[in-house]
Hints:
Layout: E1 2-8, H1 9-16, E2 19-21, E3 27-31, E4 41-44, H2 51-55, E5 61-64, E6 76-79, H3 83-94, E7 109-110, E8 115-116, E9 121-122, E10 127-128, E11 133-134, E12 139-140, E13 144-146, E14 151-152, E15 157-160, E16 165-167, E17 175-177, E18 183-186, E19 191-192, E20 197-199, E21 205-208, E22 213-214, E23 219-220, E24 225-226, E25 231-232, E26 237-238, E27 243-244, E28 249-250, E29 255-256, E30 261-262, E31 267-268, E32 273-274, E33 283-285, E34 290-291, H4 292-315
Parallel strand pairs: 3-4, 4-5, 5-6, 7-10, 8-11, 9-12, 10-13, 11-14, 12-15, 13-18, 14-19, 15-20, 18-21, 20-23, 21-24, 22-25, 23-26, 24-27, 25-28, 26-29, 27-30, 28-31, 29-32, 31-33
Antiparallel strand pairs: 1-3, 2-6, 16-17, 33-34
Amino acid sequence: MKFPTPVSLEWLADFLDAELVGDGSAMATGINEIHRVEQGDLCFVDHPKYYNKSLHSNATYIIINTKDVTVPEGKTLLVVPEPFEAYLKIVRHYRPFKASATPISESAVIGEGTVVMPNVYIGNDVIIGKNCIIHPNVTINPYTEIGDNVVIQAGSVIGSDGFYYNTKKNRDVWYKRMESCGHVVIEDYVEIGAGCTIDRGVTADTRIGAGTKMDNQVHIGHDVVIGKNCLFAAQVAIAGGTTLKDGVTLWGQVGVSKTLTIHENVTVLAQSGVGSDLEAGKVYFGSPVEDALSKKKELVWVKRIPELWKKVMETK
Length: 316
């Protein structure tokens, strides 16, 4: 999330009741979680396992719960007992919850030629382009941006909060939601099937590239970035923070793990599980996925095991 205007570290330190280590006159431009952080951003870290990663990330300013670290040049620390609570305080300050009193918010912008069918909910600060078709019972939550010539079939939910939790076993509630302050951006000529769910970014954007088509019951997790002209069959699920380049095809019931990259023009065959980055231009199959031709040969040999075993036993 980018702040409306840059914010001084001195103001943030006072707001969070934090100890400032570094340049208090510096200006933060936004707050992001570690997978999408950019220079000028704040991020937070509350576990020693991730101190080094955060300190050497693109984040310029780090909310942290210790001073006992080596601070790289150009970084500034905001030291607080509970960095996650500090993160939530910033998010709630800049993105307070605003209830919607009408099915279509007065702050929503809907382009010329767009058709909105009955029982559609469109939340605050939603932007919808021209010549779109929004079918019945679709929910479009706040901070969603939709381009031109987009089709969203019945019952889909766009912009729900990400499934992303801070975990601490020393408190009554072990799992506390990282409240989302990001967006969903759906580019031109995207088609979304019935019963699909697309989570908004936790702090950045979930983005669906132009020309991408989705079948029914597809799930896209928070902060996923999908390229142009991708094709997803029914019941595909993509976990948070993953990047898919242009021209990726995922057939039915493919599951994709978090924070990995699938490169250009990859095809993953049905019921496969993707757990690591995939090279461009290849066809994959299996769980975990392998080169499809090699995997099919392996399955042929697996089917022959009883026959081969029988021959071995007959020779004894």
